[in-house]
Design a protein that fits this description.
The structure is a homodimer of 190-residue chains. With 190 residues, the first copy, chain A, is mainly α. Chain A folds into 2 domains: 48 residues, Homeodomain-like (Arc Repressor Mutant, subunit A, Orthogonal Bundle), CATH 1.10.10; 135 residues, Orthogonal Bundle (Tetracycline Repressor, domain 2), CATH 1.10.357. Helix content of chain A is 86%, strand content 0%. Chain A has 10 helices and no strands. The first copy, chain A, starts with a helix and ends with a helix. The mean pLDDT of chain A is 96. The structure holds a DNA duplex (18 and 18 nucleotides).
Amino acid sequence: MKQGNKTKLRIINEANKLFYQQGFNATSFSNIVDATGLSKGNITYHFKNKQEILSGIVESRLADIDELLTAWNKEFPSPINRLVRFCEMLLDEQDNLKQYGCPMGTLTGELSKNQPALYQLTLPMFKRFQTWLLEQFTLLNFSSEQANENALELLSRVQGITVITHVFKDEKFLNKEISKLKNEIKNRYD
Amino acid sequence: MKQGNKTKLRIINEANKLFYQQGFNATSFSNIVDATGLSKGNITYHFKNKQEILSGIVESRLADIDELLTAWNKEFPSPINRLVRFCEMLLDEQDNLKQYGCPMGTLTGELSKNQPALYQLTLPMFKRFQTWLLEQFTLLNFSSEQANENALELLSRVQGITVITHVFKDEKFLNKEISKLKNEIKNRYD
DNA sequence: GTCTATACGCAGATAGAC
DNA sequence: GTCTATCTGCGTATAGAC
């Protein structure tokens, strides 16, 4: 039972890495076999198919996101500083972003094309950030409509920077744009 | 010979649609067979493999992009109006963007993950827009460095809006953000 | 809970008839 | 230039031994 959960986690972590680094559709069951060192049968025992694995990954990622946002809320009393911290997240991940793009954006984008069920599965990850951003702008006394617009706009800015960083493999651009974006946040909302 | 070219075009067009709507890796040879109504053997006669088809698609798209940009250059003498027209392109394509994302961004992003050769193949599409934007900002008397920064930033903004439109299936967001972006261009650069 | 074995279909590639 | 036929391997799914 305990051992089973450990195996499950191992599968989720390795599959998560592969889905991120290769894409969901480009990752086969046997890629996961190789990465985990487990047998195909064992993986099937824990997850019937790729969709189930994805479901496990999303669950695990949602927990991570919640933990992260809770930590930020504690660490930064000021909503402005929270928004700034949000932007700085991209700097922490710059090597990965350059190579593989946004872990949420590329996954949801891939599945959104023509795998509606899987797309729906991944959407909550985006919603978590959206909701959290909305909360910060609400704390900054924006109307709910305006807070929502600001939240989506900031998400959009960050996604755009990520796409260009990924496509052009350009972390100089990333650093410059994030620094500009942070200033803009301070000037516009503070 | 003439018939052969017509067939080639048909394959390119159908495969282009499929790669866009399903993704490159999720599209199989037989998907293309079904979409074109041609036999597998015939397609193989014209293109050895998927990579060759992709190569043909990129060539065709580059021609389209060049034609589009040349037309804009003729239609709009003012660089500002050209930049505005560039933004409005997203409105023309809003249904597709909502369903499938950016035809360049999603393709290059998918291939950039771990298919470097194919990624390199698609990069020139992005570069065409980047270069053209750079030219417009140069005409607006920005230094080459500043023009380059502005060009990439605008590309980034547009990509971000596209990603959010795609992920949240939200064309209201698209319309609002494009209208804001157009105003920003006029205020900042004019 | 973990493994090996097997079955079946589809993807990609090639040969050759018309 | 277009087609049918065939081949090989990989992907997915399932059964059953340890």
